[in-house]
Amino acid sequence: MFDNLSDKLDKALHVLKGHGKINEVNVAETMKEVRRALLDADVNFKIAKDFTKRVREKAIGQNVLTTLQPGQLMVKIVKDELTELMGGEAEGINLGGSPSVILMSGLQGSGKTTFSGKLANFLKNKKGKKPLLVACDVYRPAAIDQLHVVGDQIQVPVYSDRGNNDPVAIAKAGIAQAKAEGNNVVIIDTAGRLAVDEQMMDEIANIHKAIKPEETLFVVDSMTGQDAVNTAKAFNDILNFDGVILTKLDGDTRGGAAISIKSVVNKPIKFIGTGEKMEAIDVFHPARMADRILGMGDVVSLVERAQEQFDEEEARKLQRKIAKNKFGFDDFLNQIQQIKKMGNLKDLMGMIPGAGKALKGLDIDDDAFKHVEAIIHSMTPDERSTPSMLNASRKKRIAKGSGRSVQEVNQLLKQFDQMSKMMKMMQGGGGRKMMQMMGG
Ligand code: GDP
């Protein structure tokens, strides 16, 4: 996410980060480079210019050059301004209605249907809501099918009416059904076009007027940069929407839309989409995003994700197994599943301060665990629970079965062994031993 921008800002701020003497000349030079980095990220020219102007003014106001750590203060000013530019505080959505109606708007392909599903899933699992999805695209039957597929996947009901070509009537009927069935949130997916056109705008404006949603969200593909900002402006002029959803941030290396959109339409980014899976949704936190852009990681989000997946009962079971030396490859597989649920690996790595840069160029993908899983799946249940029984011929068989080399099998066994030892040590009073081992 935003790798290019992070890289360029990192280079621009290099001097200030304590790698040289700081004076008015190189502060000015740095600001010029920051501006260039923003422009390369497809941030609007005026926004980039104002941004560096504000940073400079703040720096002068705070007498940066006379402070003890001028570089760090400058970086902090850049971070604060970046946060402010993206919206300051995180904003939630209005769930005050009964039911709360959420209207989705945006171009075709922006990720509206996918996001409708993600939001329904999020509200169901994290907020205990009972959502109903409503399919209001009367032009593309495939869009209705797609929403049904999504609904089945997350087990959320979908209202559609294939014979009806009046989206206002469908939306109203959907809301009526929600009332009758006790659904307290209604998410209305609408038709989009490939570009802004009058008919689409009229249609979404009519739906908006007729149903008066609690929340109108504009969904936009982050990778489209300045176009995303222009489209946002067109939709906002008609709908005066409440918030922006930026999708496909996982593929966006530049970040121009994320940085510019708030100051152009003066509406907050509320959620981001970071992948095709239903779980790839995050509340947008401007400060955390600024940290990530500046390569400072996002430990808070990382811990939150870990906590979401953390199951106390499972953890206790695992502890007992470790204590009894019963930790086997099935438990290991389980752990891998849990990590995978936290999200795409590259994304997770990006949340570790400094890791993004260190791991740059490394091709980590969702399948990073594929080989390990294949090897474990080729083991018999006995072998998985008692790895010590793995002799040369068994290893050979496992390698053949998984399509990996014996070397790789050995490597995994070694890692597993080290991990088991470490876990055992970290248990009962082992913390001290561990510290000793690490020279503490
Ligand atoms: P709609 O026409 O606005 O309803 O868009 P869709 O929901 O059909 O999404 C268009 C394409 O973008 C689909 O292939 C989705 O899987 C993909 N997509 C949606 N959101 C994301 C995201 O956050 N990341 C990635 N990588 N792909 C996404």
Short description:
This is Signal recognition particle protein. The protein has 440 residues and is α/β, with parallel strands linked by helices. 58% of the residues lie in helices and 9% in strands.
Regions with pLDDT < 50 over 5+ consecutive residues? none
Q: Give the mean pLDDT.
A: 86
The 3D shape can be described as flat
The structure class reads alpha/beta
Fraction of helical residues: 55-70%
Report, as a whole number of angstroms, the end-to-end distance. Answer: 37 Å
Task: Name the ligand types.
Answer: guanosine-5'-diphosphate
Number of strands: 8
CATH topology of the largest domain: Rossmann fold
Total of helices = 22
Q: Biggest sheet: strands, sense, closure?
A: 8 strands, mixed
CATH-wise, what's the superfamily of the largest domain?
P-loop containing nucleotide triphosphate hydrolases
Query: How are strands sequenced across the largest beta sheet?
Result: 3-2-4-1-5-6-7-8
Secondary-structure map:
Blueprint: H1 3-12, H2 15-19, H3 24-40, H4 45-61, H5 70-86, E1 100-105, H6 112-127, E2 131-135, H7 141-154, E3 158-159, H8 167-181, E4 185-189, H9 198-211, E5 215-221, H10 226-239, E6 243-247, H11 256-265, E7 269-273, E8 281-283, H12 286-293, H13 299-309, H14 312-323, H15 329-341, H16 345-350, H17 355-358, H18 370-377, H19 381-385, H20 392-402, H21 406-426, H22 430-437
Parallel strand pairs: 1-4, 1-5, 2-3, 2-4, 5-6, 6-7
Antiparallel strand pairs: 7-8
